[in-house]
Amino acid sequence: MTTSGAETPGQWWELAALVHGLDIHNNALLRERATKVGLTVMQASTLRALTGPMTLSELAGLMSCEPSNVIVVIDKLEKQGLIERRPHPTDRRAKQLHLTPEGTERRAKLLETLNEKPFSTGLTEQEQDALRSLLRQAIAAAGSAEA
């Protein structure tokens, strides 16, 4: 790495490939753990993101996707009795998504399963903290560069 802070294209590509490789590994673990609690990866991601009542648009924003991409997942979770749509308290045109008691229980089981063993195995707790901090900095810098 250069001392000026500038990266050569090869260094950038290697970093991107490493992050991508970690993402592939983590997605495989997420799939395995979601299956343990009877969910698909998208259903698990949706339940994890649904931290309280929110609209479909708010949920899609948290998941970095379009609302139309979440509707199919919401419909399936609703059929399973894990989520219900309720009228929005202040916007009569909107609906809010709420976890049912069974959905709250399944979400808790999912979170417990996701935390069974760290995704970044082989790293100490201090190294995981450092990696988390560096990735947050990189994401924040990428977001400010786009603006």
Strand count, sense and barrel status of the largest sheet are: 2 strands, antiparallel
Q: Give the percentage of residues in beta strands.
A: 5-15%
- The helix content, as a percent range, equals 55-70%
Intertermini distance = 27 Å
Principal-axes geometry comes out as globular
Summed over residues and divided by their number, the pLDDT gives a mean of: 87
Q: Reading side by side through the largest sheet, how are the strands ordered?
A: 1-2
Q: Give the SSE string.
A: HHHHEEHH
The Rg value, from CA coordinates, equals 19 Å
User: Uncertain runs with pLDDT below 50, 5 residues or more?
Assistant: none
Secondary structure tally: strands:
2
Structural class comes to mainly alpha
Structure annotation, total helices: 6
